[in-house]
Structure formats: structure tokens, C-alpha cells
Write a structure and sequence with these properties.
CATH class of the largest domain: Alpha Beta
Mean pLDDT: 76
CATH architecture of the largest domain: 3-Layer(aba) Sandwich
Distance between the termini: 47 Å
Low-confidence stretches: 110-146
Structural class: alpha+beta
Order of helices and strands: EEHHEHHEE
Shape: globular
CATH superfamily of the largest domain: GIY-YIG endonuclease
Number of domains: 2
CATH topology of the largest domain: GIY-YIG endonuclease
Helix content: 25-40%
Number of helices: 4
Oligomer: single chain
Strand order of the largest sheet: 2-1-3
């Protein structure tokens, strides 16, 4: 059965946290562990910490779980808002962004380093208007005025 909520990985050795959200926390935990064991996790800080420490040094914890009674009342939009808000709260509380393994502020992967001034996400190869933007060290984005 799916479990909606916020989970965390805690390094007992470094005392650092990685906080995430999922609509299926058990499956997401298994995915993290497979990627970490294979050395292929997208989060380099988390991967480096896992590789440096032993697997036994990490604990998996459920930080917040959505109750089934509340789940049946909420719609998709409210559920997503609850997950995003609660994840941000846990990241802030555990200082997982400042001194932990989280690289974003939380809430659907939003990051201050990947946002344009008006809040739209962009990446290295994203097409904005009809131009490709790419520089050596930083990416810029433009807003298409119509």
C-alpha cells in the first residue's frame, strides 16, 4: 500500500540529513538505496557521504505521514501543496540544506540556483524562445516578450 509523506536519511557518522517527499515512500527509499549502492545518485553530496561512510551508518526514517482519512478528503493539488510545504519545513528544521545533503530548499525540487528571476526552472539545454543559452559556468535565461 502506498504511503504519502516525508522521509529522511540520517548519517549517524556525519550527523547530516537528506529529506525527501514521495507518494510511495517504501519504493522511493529502495530507489535511493539502489542508486547509492551503485554510485549513481543524482545528489553528489549525498552520494559522496554514502560512499565515504558505510551503509550501516545511514538510518531511514519516516518524518511525516499523511493519514488515510485526510488523504481521502484532499485533492491532488492540496496533497501536492501539503507534501511541498511539509518537506520545506523538515528541511529547514533539520538544516538539511545548510549543513546536510539536500541541495534544494524542497518542495518539488525547487532550487534557488536553478531559477530564473521570475521563478521559472531552466536547465543547460532548455530552449527558451528560439535561442539556446549556455555559458561555461552559469546558465542564463531570458523571458520571451510577446
Amino acid at each position: 500500500m502506498k504511503q504519502f509523506g516525508i522521509y529522511g536519511f540520517h548519517s549517524c557518522r556525519d550527523k547530516k540529513w537528506y529529506v525527501g517527499q514521495s507518494c510511495n515512500m517504501v519504493r522511493r527509499c529502495q530507489e535511493h538505496l539502489q542508486l547509492l549502492a551503485g554510485g549513481k545518485h543524482d545528489n553528489r553530496l549525498f552520494q559522496r557521504g554514502y560512499t565515504r561512510c558505510r551503509e550501516d551508518d545511514f538510518e531511514y526514517m519516516v518524518l511525516s505521514r499523511l493519514s488515510l482519512s485526510l488523504f481521502s478528503v484532499l485533492g491532488k493539488k492540496e496533497l501536492r501543496n501539503w507534501l511541498n510545504t511539509t518537506e520545506k519545513l523538515w528541511i529547514q528544521t533539520l538544516e538539511a540544506r545548510v549543513s546536510g545533503y539536500n541541495q534544494t530548499i524542497g518542495g518539488a525540487g525547487s532550487s534557488t540556483r536553478n531559477l530564473c528571476p521570475w521563478g521559472k526552472r531552466f536547465t543547460k539545454k532548455r530552449v527558451v524562445g528560439r535561442a539556446y543559452w549556455h555559458s561555461l559556468r552559469q546558465y542564463r535565461c531570458i523571458r520571451k516578450y510577446v
